[in-house]
Specification:
The chain is α+β, with helices and mostly antiparallel strands and 307 residues long. The chain has 9 helices and 15 strands.
């Protein structure tokens, strides 16, 4: 079976290239049949996954060497029903996907798992769609509001590049999060769960659709989330003051936030959100613009992952 590696050499501010060089040497010595696709910019990983699946219709192993953003693009490039075993080798700053599905966070150990997997598991892939048109998938999480605004700000932050160089890249999400507590917009919102149950809020802070437990560099935002159950777990924060929001933040580290007033955790098949004014949206940390309507759900086909 052939191996395809989609490599982001710029991940972790260039550290990804050093790590890949070591893996590449091991691959050459192993005698395995493999091909490498390097990414240079946004959208390259998606194009690589599309090309791989088009030219090789047989069962294959695709391994992503990068962070959650590179993995997100790859997932969006794999057509429904494609014969793929997906592997993830973390070289990003957050690496929430590997944390959420049980892949080692150590880069070399994860690489060894790709070469000799312990087992395979079929995971759900989330779906974020917009009534005005367009749809994207997510492997970790998707969110509207405060959470998404953190991602928008963090990706363009100079601080992120500096922290990546010293191996502390995920701190940028915590620092940006504290800064935005007092600046992010709140708005009236209506949320429809599974097309039936309606919830109304005067001030929606954010709503995160979790496929795995973690986002934002290891924060267990959705402790009840299970990437194999065919559902998403919504974490909804609403109608709390900004000061209370700030005090809630440390509780997320140990997943105690779900017991707080103004915080709801709902496991469902679909969640439609309508807001009075547009808010930021992200999928796996990648910005998707601002929207006042969004639908979260699960794709019909599961994806086989090497663990």
């Amino acid at each position: 079976m052939k191996y395809y590696f989609i490599v982001n050499p710029g991940s972790r501010t260039g550290k990804g290239k050093e790590l890949w060089d070591e893996m590449h040497k091991r691959l050459e010595k192993s005698g395995r049949d493999f091909e490498v696709f390097y990414t240079k910019g946004q959208g390259d990983a998606k194009k690589a996954a599309e090309l791989i699946c088009k030219k090789d219709p047989d069962m294959k192993r695709i391994a992503v060497v990068g962070g959650d953003g590179t993995l997100n693009e790859t997932v969006n490039g794999i057509p429904d029903g494609a014969k793929v075993m997906l592997g993830a080798i973390p070289t990003g700053s957050s690496n929430d996907f590997v944390r959420g599905v049980g892949i080692p966070s150590n880069t070399i150990k994860a690489f060894e798992r790709v070469l000799v997997p312990r087992y395979f598991t079929k995971i759900d892939i989330g779906r974020t769609s917009f009534p005005e048109g367009g749809e994207t998938r997510f492997a970790v999480s998707s969110s509207i509001g405060y959470d998404a605004q953190i991602c928008h700000k963090a990706l363009t932050s100079r601080l992120k590049k500096f922290l990546n160089r010293i191996g502390k890249g995920r701190l940028v999400y915590y620092i940006t999060g504290i800064f935005l507590v007092f600046r992010c917009p709140h708005t009236k919102a209506e949320i429809i769960i599974d097309g039936k149950r309606k919830l109304s809020y005067k001030k929606l802070v954010f709503a995160s659709a979790m496929n795995t437990r973690y986002e934002g560099g290891g924060m267990p935002m959705g402790p009840a989330a299970d990437p194999t159950d065919g559902k998403i777990t919504m974490c909804i924060v609403h109608d709390v003051s900004r000061l209370r929001h700030l005090f809630y933040m440390p509780s997320v580290i140990k997943a105690n936030h779900v017991h707080k007033r103004g915080v709801e955790q709902i496991t469902c098949h679909t969640c439609e959100i309508r807001t009075e004014s547009p808010l930021c949206v992200h999928t796996d940390g990648e910005p998707c613009g601002k929207h006042d309507r969004v639908m979260f759900g699960i794709s019909e086909n599961k994806l086989r992952v090497m663990v």
